[in-house]
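Q: I have two molecules that I believe assemble together. Could you output structure tokens for the complex as a whole instead of separate predictions?
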Amino acid sequence: MLGETRYVGSSVLRNEDQRLLNGNGNFLDDIKISGCQYIHFVRSNIAHGIVKSIDISEAEKVAHITKIYTGRDLQGMLQSMAPSKADGGIFEEKLFSTMGDQDAFIRREDRHPIVVGKVRHVGEIIAVVVGTDPYVVEDAAELIIVDIEEIQPVVDPKNALEAESPKIYDHWEDNRSLHLHVRKGDIEAAFANAHTVVKRTFHSGRISASPIETRGVIAHFEDHNEKLTVWSSTQIPHPVRTYLAHSLNLPSSRIRVVAPDVGGGFGCKAIPYPEEILCSLISIQLKIPVRWIEDRLEHFTSSIHSRDQFHDIEIAMDAEGKILGLRDDFLMDCGASNPLGVVQPYNTIAHLAGCYEVPAMDVTATAVVTNKVPLSPYRGAGRPEAVFAMDRILDVAAQELGLDPFDVRRKNLVPSESMPYSVGINYRDGAPIVYDSGDFPKCFDTAVELLQSSCDTDRRRDESGRYIGLGAATYVEGTGIGPFEGALVRVDETGSIHVAIGACPQGQGHETVFAQVAADTLSVDIEDVKVVTGDTDAIPYGWGTLASRSAVVAGSAVYEAATKVLQKVKIAVADEWEISPDDLLAQHGRIFVKGTPAKETTLEEVAEKFSPGGDYAQKFTPGLEEQIYWEPPTVTFASGVHIARVAVDADTGAVEILTYIVVHDCGPLLNPQIVDGQIAGGVAKGIGAALFEEICYDDNGQPMNPNLMDYILPTNDTIPDLLIEHLETPSPLNPLGIKGVGEAGTIPPPAAIANAIENALTEIGVEINKVPVSPKYLLNQIQKTKEAKL
Amino acid sequence: MKVNLRTQINDREIDLEIEPRLLLSDLLREHLNFTGTHVGCSYGVCGACTVIIDGKPARSCLTLAIQANNCSVRTIEGVAASSTFDRVSSAFHQEHGLQCGFCTPGIICSIVALTESGKNIAEEDIDKVVDGHLCRCTGYVNIRKAAKKAVGIYQGDENAR
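A: Yes, here they are, computed for all two components at once.
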């Protein structure tokens, strides 16, 4: 644990702001390399079919075109993007071995970065145009004639399960890509003894991460030293390097992957992509640097989508509203492939019980492939779907029992005295789920107090006749997953502190937060610490920033590495002064004997003596630096409660959020302002998923709204000010006691807001079974309810 | 066929032969290396590419470069050299009004244009400006605070240091 802190726990203003504010940020498309050519990908506009021919003859004649490639040209030069340990598969073996169900399986196809033969979704890459002018490569692409023999597309995931459905992968026996089954307790007895059983279907719609900066890649193979440098707008430079090494058959030591300033990621930049491989291959082939910047249409048709789960959930309750058992059978439409395997569906299973005591549960997950963009985790990663199903069915059950949904919720929370609490199933890393810390009832009560002090909770209509309602949802979040993250901490000969970490930021403030941790651990001024991220040449191994993990895993690594550096300092100085290292104190860059501050040296002098050839270097290992790879034992659980108060216009279907309350427990806050910023951003995404965002496909597998005019992102006028409070129960699982916060805000808003809408419309009796609750959906539900009553 | 463009960009006189179809955003980013102007959607929705043309905010991705003929264009790089910038940028810094920073230069340009308009600025004016920009990181809350602080109608969070 940290001793005296000057920075950790304070809202230290961000080190990265200056360059981002004055236009000097270094985003992917801002990197200019002399001689760099432009790449444009020709993508399929057909959802399902066989490529019969590609005619590039006219396109090749266009001036400024260097080369055009098709799948056949590149096929032999590439390994397929076989699933590897780099993409989450690392925990899968352990998970399946502990699941204890013979029927559980996962099928993962070898993705080829460019179509050879079969097209499986609109947006797949069919050809690559390389040229010296960004406008002309697009002109030439329009002259390429692609003949695709269409196959009946598979669009509805339920139809995908039918025996007569066309198959996405011909060599598979059906379209199922995954089946998981987890049980605990005596589920049959729970339902047999229930006072009330309710069952509903809930659908979390298909959504897009839509960072304002799209993806992009620059690849530069330098022939003279056979080194490939790839700049990519990615969350995972090290795993991308591994993928490139395998696909291109290159030693990973000859590849450098750099994530520069990244303009938002949220999960959609957390898998390796075909474009990274193709740009690299073409740079190697042509011996020139090449660049590709994803346009917004490409973002919607080639960057991963997320959510898209249909839950058939059933809950058994006693007469007082205590949960006896829970059954859930859900279907996930994973699109044309499932790049991260179990991550999203298993996260849903692992988080379904959430903050509640559920004595028995039986959960089945099935994923099917369809002719849509592949599905992969997006901020929340399976948890918003779980909370939407669980906290909605609780409200339905409360209504059926004639009880207040807030009371039912409160009654079922895991009591604080039960902490640490064993859920009775495993996490996706194969370890048993144990809520290591937290106080759910206190969290809940704090949220209710905030609500009562901030508004008139009895008001049911506003002056314009809108219906007002309240809804709550709770959540836990396993954060800080492994396998590891590393930190290199070095004091250079000027006394300046260099920190390199594998986790790279996309706006989370790593250059500030990890400088706070290093500065307090070493007791130096934060101005003397420089944090380097997103460069595989800066630290040999790394994982990435995703899954609410960086503060926990990289933070612990920085703390441990800096602690070891300080130990090294003390051992060397104590040896020279012939005293015990325990008699030394480090403060503000000075090292001195406790109680005798006159006898002192500085970190700078110590570092100089550690330089190769220096006094300390002779006796100890040269270099005042330490590199640590910190492996968490398992995840640590953050938790929280959200309450939404909404006004619903039953004539237009418009919903306004009047009050939004967040009480959250991520342990001690490293930087309160940054934590609140993460929560606010997460909640806005949750509001988007609850009310606005959905990617729609027609029956031909054509995306109907792949643009920012028809795919509605939340805007300023739709996001209220938030009331946020924190509980800070420390985690016992890492040296700083922290829990992750990146995704938390995104998790409960769909459930809380849907509950609030339903509560507002009690008088009409409308039920909300899907998100987003668009005006169209809501008006339809109101209409249906009214007709049913006639 | 090329056309002649004469314009002033960040106080620099520009005289160039350009393609008529060249977008202003591409002229700025690719030809003049003013890369602080970001392109998020290329059809005017997100607002990241906002620059100031003759005192008014404009989407540079929806503007042909030739449309800026005989105009005065200011990008974030030019704005950053102005006296209003310090106040706006320090408000965004203090209020954590940016995370990834990709949408930020466009928002700053819009706020600076509003500030320099000479108008008496009310909260609604700020809201209207922020309504016109997409941000996917902050949830807007801190952008609103920062923008209001920049024009002196919000005092700010005294806990920040």
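A: One point stands out. The longest helix of chain A spans residues 550-577.
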